[in-house]
Amino acid sequence: MGSGSKMRGPNRWTAQVGSFSLRFIWHFIHFIISACFFVLGLAGAVDSYLISSGLLKKYNDLNLGKLQYLAIVLDSDEARQTSHVIKLLQWLSDVGVKHVCLYDEEGVLKKSKDAILEKLSHIRLFKETDEMLPLDKKNMTLELASPSDGKEAMEKAANLLFTKHLELRNTTEDQGDNIFTEAHMTEALRAVGCSGPEPDLLLVYGPARCHLGFPPWRLQYTEIVHMGPLKSMKRGSLMKAIYRFTLVRQNYGK
After folding, report:
1. What's the rounded Cα separation, in Å, for the pair 225 and 245?
2. What is the pLDDT of residue 113?
3. Contact (CB, 8 A) for 244 and 116
4. Rounded mean pLDDT, 210-222
5. What crossing angle do the helices spanning 147-171 and 182-191 adopt, rounded to 10°?
6. Where are the alpha helices (DSSP H) in 96-181?
7. For helices 235-247 and 82-95, angle between their N-to-C axes, nearest 10 degrees
8. Cβ contact 50:236 at 8 Å
9. Hey, is 204 helix, strand or coil?
10. For residue 71, what is the enclosing H or E element?
11. 122, 148, 143: which is closest to 72 by C-alpha?
């Protein structure tokens, strides 16, 4: 009995030391990671303040020639924050962005259309028949999109392609393979008036780091940037994202 007690004593002490060491290491790593996130957040906040206050001169005059059309994807919970959406649109208008598309998964933004237009009287809704013409300094066009638009567009385009296929089959003797390419679909979408402008830049607000179902045929050459939660949005971060986009060199394939 005495020998067994002597053996269990050191083992219990070793186990306690090991457990304490593991807890200490876990808390230390957690502290380091939390400190890094805090420093990064603080640096981002300071950077955003300096940009929005105009102290960093290179952000004052953004070259918006490359940014003809801007898309913003919002998580549905973020889209319900109408006051933040209105503030974001006002910032974009102040910066000089002229054509904006707002998208969310559940069509929440479409339901908020009247509230948005009431607060921002200088905004008019974008229509497919509109041309991307220059607007005066204060005006902006706004497109409100949701997944239902994409489904309807695909149905119309598919019906058009199927109709053309039947017509071709009835008028020609050659019954070779009929292959539909991406170019055919793009042409069909344009023919039914559902192609929509291709955004140059797409900003994503919310937890997801993806385009949340934004029509993929409109994203062939689009630059996508995740901006974080809408409630934490900062004017400086928005200007910085646009500025960085204006510096991007895009190589278009044949």
Report:
1. 9
2. 92
3. no
4. 85
5. 110
6. 108-111, 113-119, 147-171
7. 50
8. yes
9. strand
10. strand 70-74
11. 143
Tokens describing residue 186: 């793009």
Q: For residue 249, give the 3-state DSSP assignment.
A: coil
Distance CA 233, CA 215 (A): 25
Average pLDDT, the chain: 79
> What are the phi and psi torsion angles at 228 (to 5°)?
85, -170
In the predicted model, is pLDDT for residue 227 greater than 90? yes
**What average pLDDT does range 145-165 have in this prediction?**
67
168: nearest Cα among 157, 181, 178 = 178
Q: Are strands 140-145 and 99-104 parallel, antiparallel or unpaired?
A: parallel
- The one-letter amino acid code at 101 reads C
Assign residue 196 a region (left: φ > 0; alpha: ψ between -120 and 50; beta: otherwise). Answer: left
- The pLDDT score that the predictor gives to residue 129 is 46
Residue 149: strand, helix, or coil: helix
Of the listed ranges 37-41, 136-140, 148-152, the one predicted with least confidence: 148-152
pLDDT of residue 158: 65
- Over range 216-220, report the average pLDDT: 82
Q: How many C-beta atoms surround the C-beta of residue 123 within 10 A?
A: 20
- Give me the mean pLDDT over the 215-228 stretch: 88
CA distance 163 to 171: 12
